[in-house]
Amino acid sequence: MRRSAPGFLVASLIATISTPLLAQGFGGTVTDILVRGDSLLAQDRANEAIVQFQEARTLCATPAEVVASLQGEGRAHLAMKEYLPAAGLFEEAAQKYPDDPRVADMLYLAGMARREGGDMTAAVPLLQKALQSSPTGDLQPTLKFQLAQMLRMSGKPADAIPLVRDFETEFERNPIIPNAIYTLAISQHDAGDLEGAEKSYRHLIDAYPHSQAAAESFYDLGEVLSARGNRKESAEFFRRYANGNPSSPLSARAMERAADMTLFTYPKEAAIMYGVAQVKAQQNLVPPLPEMQISRWIKPKRFVAGLLGRPIVIAAAAGGALLLIGAIVWTVRRRRPAMAV
User: Fold this and answer.
1) How far apart are CA 321 and CA 317, in angstroms?
2) How far apart (Å, rounded) are the C-alpha atoms in residues 116 and 123?
3) How far does the chain reach from its first CA to its final CA, in angstroms?
4) Which residues pair with residue 25 across a beta bridge?
5) Is the distance from CB of 304 to CB of 313 less than 8 angstroms?
C-alpha cells in the first residue's frame, strides 16, 4: 500500500488541476507565449513569432486567446509580405469566432491583405462585411474610406459615393478627411456627375489648401472644367498642378493640357507651355499609363502655336475673318430681294 501511495497522490493531483494550469507548456502559459510572440514580431523576427503563435493554439487556449494567436500569426505573415496566408488566418478567426468583439478588425485586415495580394474581388465583400459587424469608432472612418477606394477601383464609383459623401461631418477633424473628399470627387467624376465632381474638387482646394489631396485635385478639376467647356479656367488649374508638382510624372501632361486650352486664344503662351511640357517629359519619371504621358502630337501643336502667335499670321487671320464676314453679308443682301418676292 505504501508503494502505491505516490501514484495515488499524483493521480489525485492531476484530477484537481484547474483549466488555467493545464493551459501551460514548456514556454509558460498561453498568455506568456502570446506576449513572447508579440515581442518577437516587434523585433522583426516574424518567423520566430509564428512558431510562438502556433504553439499557443496547441495548449488549452480560450477562444479569445485563439483569436489573438491567429491575429498575431496573420500580422507576422503581413510583415513578411505573405498577404494571402495572412488573409486566410484573419478570415479563420472571424469565421470560427463570430461573437468575438474583434471580428470587424479581422475582416478589415483580411480585406486589406487580399487587396495587397492582388485579389480585389475577394477584398471588397470582406470590407463590406466588416462594416456590417459593428466596427469600433477608431476603425470605422478608415474602413469606410478604404472600402470606397476599393469600390471605385473595382469600377463601381456610384457605390463608393455614399460611403464618403458625408465623411467630413460624420468624422470631424479626422486626418484622412482630405483624402476622403478627393475619393468622393473622383468617384463622382468617374460616375459622370461632373457638376458634383467640380463642387467637391473646389471644396477640397478651398477647405484644405495645404493637403496633398488638394494638390492632386488641380489636374482632375482641370479635366472636369475642360469637359464642361470652361477652357480658360481649365488651363489655369492645369498650370497650377504643373507648377505645384514640378517633379510629378503627370506634370508634363498637365502643361500640355493647359496649352491645348489656350492654343487659339493665347497661342504665344501655348507655344511656351508646349515647350515646357517637352522639357518636363525628358526630366521627370515616365507616367505608368499612356494617357498620362504627353501626346505624340505635341511637336506639331507647338509648331502651330508658334505660327499662330506671329503678328503676320494674326493679321492674315483677322483679314481672312473680315473677308469671310463681308462675303456672308454680301450674299445675304443679294438674296434678300428674291426672298421678299
Assistant:
1) 6
2) 9
3) 142
4) 28
5) no
Sign of CA dihedral 255, 261, 264, 265: negative
pLDDT tens column, 189-241: 999 999 999 999 999 999 999 999 999 999 999 999 999 999 999 999 999 99
In one letter, which amino acid is 124? V
Closest to 235 (Cα-Cα) out of 274, 196, 199, 197: 274
Asked whether 54 and 70 are in contact (CB, 8 A), the reply is no
The closest alpha carbon to 74, from 53, 90, 56, 97, belongs to: 90
Cβ pair 170, 140 in contact under 8 A: no
- Look up the pTM and report it: 0.80
Place of cell 506639331: 300
Comparing CA positions, the residue from 129, 221, 142 lying closest to residue 180 is: 142
Helix axes 103-116, 63-79, angle to 10 degrees: 20
In our burial notation (b when 16+ CB lie closer than 10 A, e otherwise), range 21-58 reads: eebbeeeebbbebbebbbebbeeebbeebbbbbbbbee
* The residue count for the chain: 341
C-alpha 192, offset from chain centre: 19
Cell triple for 230: 470652361
- Say if residues 190 and 157 touch (Cβ distance below 8 Å): yes
Torsion (CA) 169, 173, 175, 176 in degrees, nearest 10: 0
**How do residues 312-330 score in pLDDT, each as one tens digit?**
444 444 434 333 333 443 3
